[in-house]
Amino acid sequence: MRLLIMGRFVKPGWWRWGVWSYWLILIVLPAVIAGLILFFSRFYNLFELVKYFIVTFFFIGSAYYLRKVYSLRVWKGIWVMLGIGLAGFPTAVASAIILIKYLGLPWFISLPISFIMAIIIGGYIGSYIGRRRGYIPLG
Length: 139
Hints:
Layout lengths: L1 H6 L11 H22 L5 H23 L3 H31 L4 H27 L6
Helix pairs in contact: 2-3, 4-5
């Protein structure tokens, strides 16, 4: 049943324009913006520029994979990662503050505890929300 839902997923309008919109939005536009930022900030470090292009190509490959493959396993992972990022990060910050400031634990004990709690709580929340939506992609 869920695979049928994934098969009927409708792409956003800008994906349906063709391969040129994909290259325009994900390659040309970020490259132009980065070039303008580098030009106006007088920042010409080659290492930073190479690092930018590596990250850009990683996201290009990820976006292409998500555009072409309708996998329930991939979307389960995405929902769990969204939960860890959006719900787990505030949980980690709050628990670290409580453990360090109010309970007086040293940072090398409290930070791993707070990160583990954040991953568990955020993963559970992301999985729960994704399961309620049937792991349907956003958009």
